Amino acid sequence: MDDVGARLEQAIGDLLDLRRAGTTICPSEAARHVDAEEWRNLMPAARAAAGRLAAAGEVEVTQGGTVVDVATARGPVRIRRRES
């Protein structure tokens, strides 16, 4: 994982920490947090960061409220803290 990937993972965690339990964020929010000007270019890396955090059991990636694998999900996804 490169520096941008680590920064995106940190941004996902930081943004989720600011939200109440059960609330989601969009990967684009993390990308914007890391680079407000070039965030669109970071979207694949932001989704990959969400995937790594999901694999580690820290978050869940959802689509339409259902947990999905971000690697195979098409279209918009959301990220939330893993439900216990």
How would you summarize the topology of this molecule?
Blueprint: H1 3-17, H2 27-34, H3 43-55, E1 59-63, E2 66-67, E3 78-81
Antiparallel strand pairs: 1-2, 1-3
Helix pairs in contact: 1-2, 1-3, 2-3
Pfam families: DUF3253
Protein name: DUF3253 domain-containing protein
Report on this structure.
The chain is an alpha+beta fold and 84 residues long. It contains three helices and three strands, in the order αααβββ. A hairpin with a 2-residue loop joins strand 1 (59-63) and strand 2. Helix 1 crosses helix 3 and helix 2 packs across helix 3 (43-55).
**Alpha plus pi helix count:** 3
Sheet having the most strands: 3 strands, antiparallel
CATH architecture: Orthogonal Bundle
Report the sheet-strand fraction. Answer: 5-15%
Number of strands: 3
Mean pLDDT: 95
Spatial gap, N to C terminus? 27 Å
Assigned CATH class: Mainly Alpha
CATH superfamily: Winged helix-like DNA-binding domain superfamily/Winged helix DNA-binding domain
Low-confidence stretches: none
How would the global form be characterised? globular
Structural class determined from secondary elements = alpha+beta
Q: Give the C-alpha Rg.
A: 11 Å
**Spatial order of the strands in the main sheet?**
2-1-3
Helix content: 40-55%
Q: How many structural domains are formed by the residues?
A: 1
Which fold name corresponds to the CATH topology? Answer: Arc Repressor Mutant, subunit A
Q: What is the H/E string?
A: HHHEEE
Organism: Blastococcus aurantiacus
Protein name: DUF3253 domain-containing protein
